[in-house]
Amino acid sequence: MTSDLLLHNTLTRRKEKFEPVNPPHVGMYVCGPTVYGDPHLGHARPAITFDVLFRYLQHLGYKVRYVRNITDVGHLENDADAGEDKVAKKARLEQLEPMEVVQHYTVRYHQAMDRLNVKRPSIEPHASGHIIEQVAMVQQILDNGFAYESKGSVYFDVLKYNQQHPYGKLSGRSVEEMLSNTRELDGQDEKRNGFDFALWKKAQPEHIMRWPSPWSDGFPGWHMECSAMGARYLGETFDIHGGGMDLVFPHHEAEIAQSVAAHGKEAVRYWLHNNMITINGQKMGKSLGNFITLEEFFNGTHPKLEKAYSPMNIRFFVLQAHYRGTVDFSNEALQAADKGYRRLMEALKTVTLLKPSDKSDSDVNALKNKCYEAINDDLNTPQLIAHLFEAVRVVNSVNDGHEKLTADDIKNLTETLQLFVTDILGLSDETQSAGDTALVEGLMETILALRKEARARKDWASSDLIRDQLKAVGIQVKDTKDGVVWSRE
Questions:
Q1: Is residue 479, in this structure, part of any structural domain at all?
Q2: Are residues 332 and 475 in the same domain?
Q3: Do both 235 and 326 map to the same domain?
Q4: Backbone torsions φ then ψ of 200, nearest 5 degrees
Q5: Domain region containing 102
Q6: Residue 1 domain-assigned?
Q7: Mean pLDDT for each 10-residue chunk of the chain (489 residues)?
Q8: 198 bridge partner residues
């Protein structure tokens, strides 16, 4: 089928009709997490954004191959190809194997995404599992003359590439601007120009994540993984590539150049970038130390939180803003989102109880069409939610006897709410379990207080017994320097 889905084309800053390469198939690649810490609110936004797109494309009848990668090697501490690998650094600090770190935080990420009702992708490849493909692509780029070897590392030659292809088209940056703004950094004497980026890095003696290659024992550059895995699973040209707006430069800019240098053509037809979650106007993220983990939101344990916020509360909060707009965290905004979410859930229950009449006072078909127009308009979820609240108003008005709907219109309105609230926006009903959640939290406070008393008496046997019995029923208790933290496993 031909879709009238409108997607924002970041390259041209205009809206175009989306037509996939091979309808009714769609290939979609989204940059996933670097797994070296607990998932935070910044991870939730791209996951939820592209989950809505995934759901909607499937609703339209497309067979979607959704690839979301796991970055477990090659992402260094800064974007100038310097510093320590983030996963390796975490492993060194915790005295673990890097893949222990990767496994632990990948599981944590999946658990958080499951609670947010984010669908699993079709394929979730790991960068470390595709070294062969990355080495082969680096060799292609070298053979085509757009890279050079230096001291066992291989770098992309941006100036050479720019002579034949415009570098910076996605971000709007020019090579001349980059030349004037690039400063020399320690350890960058291997590069011809400071803005050249690594395709392969020679591993230093202390580097524990390394693989053999024609150039050295080393590891791939951060940008290379997505180009190689995208081509591996979606082909040399595919439909949609997504990720956070902070990845436009240098990550996605480098991906474009790598694909053109290796295959002679751009890989991606449509780029979609979600904007950032901010806190006091500043991007929320691990590198800035101002992030709040999703587990802290769910348990209400972070000092900036006035209360715990449920996964659906978080999901609705994210969807209230357009994916290209910023979302600024505040307790007030989260509590307002919770009220809106609960109104939708209540309407989903009430609409099934409405009594039909012989006439209708509202145009239900027009309301349904408005919902489609909103989601077709560059995934305009805030506009869609506004139309859904109009549907809620109609439901409540009919339920209160102020308006009438025929049986067919009640059926249509029920299907519209279920389609857009549940199937496309992915909101599930948590309201029935709200009382149970409060009960569990109250019981846990009592149990942990008893354990604290046992530890104060140095009754370690009782303390350990409480911890072990909680673990047996799926509750993990962790003693930290800031106190006791508990979570559902």
A1: yes
A2: no
A3: no
A4: -145, 135
A5: 6-274
A6: no
A7: 39 56 88 94 96 96 96 79 87 92 96 97 97 98 98 97 95 86 62 94 91 97 97 97 95 97 96 90 70 94 94 98 94 96 96 96 96 95 98 97 97 98 96 61 86 90 90 80 69
A8: 155
